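[[Local backbone shapes]]
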Amino acid sequence: MQNLVRVGLCLIATLCYGETHAQAPPQPTATYHSDAMNLDFTYPSSFAKQGVDESIKNCVSTPIAGMDMSKGFNMIFLRRFDGACVGKEITADRNTVAVNFVNDLLKMLGKPDVSKGTDYEIGGHMASTVSGTVKLKDVKPAGTVVYSAASCIAVSKDLVCFGFLSSDCPTLAVLSVSTVKFTDTAPVPILPANLIGACRSGL
């Protein structure tokens, strides 16, 4: 995953320079289905080029780690923390896991500033969401910021975490409403509108 981020950073100066607000991610969408997690995750198909990796390391798998550089720097992650493998109750720790998840994503780019978690319910499951930012050094234009949002959802004994990164704040909001469908539920946005942070200038 770090190699993927390094490639993005090599290109971000070129793609971000002179960029205004990115448009909504292009259609069509791609859908990732998991019987183990009992979900369907639908996201912009431009992120599907890296494929799917369901290998498990230290009780954690990252089935999706996709990048789209067509409009700035954008990444999508899906990570599963296997409760049965861990051997203890982890779903109550979703807030801490979400904070650590965002920190892990952003610290590859610099020193992150991460919010406290907020609990909410999605598709009958308890979840926690966290946001964060990091200012990139030695990247033009000066002061380029990467924004992040993540949600960790309790699914049976597991924690299923969705993470989004973007160098354009409005695009992050679009990515954050990618949908997830759990068994016997309708598709719902991963983050409801009231939990998506407002874009602020001067970060």
